[in-house]
């Protein structure tokens, strides 16, 4: 029972933060939408800020898990590994589309919590991307690139359809909440890896080189 | 004198919207920072919403101008033209980095004004990108691609460093406000066009084909 009401509070909060903004949402609004007593919210999250922190933590713990799962396949080659990492993140963001949108928007603001998130989760993320890119450049799978600018592009591609769902849906008529989107977009990112990062060698050679 | 105070009001508003948020900023705050009387703000912009609308209009008129300038070079080939369009936008966004950041963030919210902007400026933008991409696919400069997904990637790359300045500066140590950034990033986008869109032909052949 308690577990359900915790989840219901989170869902209600994410919905309201996305539609009315964090500042425009009161604890009372959240309680009403989640159909719980406001005291429940205090019990689980203390206050609205506690809820916000929980949103960040839940999102980034899951996000980093997905990256790490992909990263653990580095021994099979950098192209393969990067494809796994990006595919996992795209699927994760599709499955948590409301939370993702809210968090990505919050991350564009200069606040204390954003600084903390960056110095923990984003630094770990950068470490993994850097390792994969460096390994690929060393073993000849990838062309020489600026690591920073490659991560910059990667991050831009990963967030675009989730942060700008309105634009993507209404101007481009691409629907990120549809089930096929994760596959389609992962395929686009896969082409990006091939076109931007990879050297011209046929892929079976690459695998041989990493063995 | 009047013109200066109008510009001062805009500058103050953009700064405060970026740091305190639109809702967290009062007309009185703006007047104080711009060192003008609050009545001046009413005179030029009616109210805070008028100021917000003006921010959108100023930004997107300039943005579209830059795209159009680039678009007018389509006769010289699609790769050349797209490079001009992207280079112009990057330079424009660098020159108006505070306004760009604010507008890009506002565009992620689902509001009446955002819908209006999308149905005018973004539809025009999509039209131009579509024309350039189609022309390139027809004359053999570009490989066959989904127009929508290509625009999706393009837009993601164009906004990333300006929307996520905090992340880009503090995690990647890339400084979008430095003067060399516009050139460096335009060069990255140029590589993106080559790696993702272009067919393998040497570029002198491409130019011959379009003549």
Q: Your description of this structure?
A:
The structure is a homodimer of 211-residue chains. Helix content of chain A is 78%, strand content 0%. Chain A starts with a helix and ends with a helix. With 211 residues, chain A is mainly alpha-helical. Chain A is elongated and about 60 Å long. Chain A folds into 2 domains: 1-46, Orthogonal Bundle (Arc Repressor Mutant, subunit A); 51-209, Tetracycline Repressor, domain 2 (Orthogonal Bundle). In chain A, helix 4 packs antiparallel against helix 5, helix 4 runs parallel beside helix 7 (112-138) and helix 5 (78-95) packs antiparallel against helix 7 (112-138). The mean pLDDT of chain A is 92. The longest helix of chain A has 27 residues, at 112-138. Chain A is built from 11 helices and no strands. Chain A binds chain B through residues 19, 21, 23-24, 101, 104-105, 107-110, 114-115, 118, 122-123, 126, 148-149, 151-153, 155-157, 159-161, 163-164, 166-168, 170-174, 184-185, 188, 191-192, 195-196, and chain B through 19, 21, 23-24, 101, 104-105, 107-110, 114-115, 118, 122-123, 126, 148-149, 151-153, 155-157, 159-161, 163-164, 166-168, 170-174, 184-185, 188, 191-192, 195-196. Chains A, B: One of its GO terms (molecular function) is DNA binding. Chains A, B: This is Transcriptional regulator. Chains A, B: Residues 26-45 bind DNA.
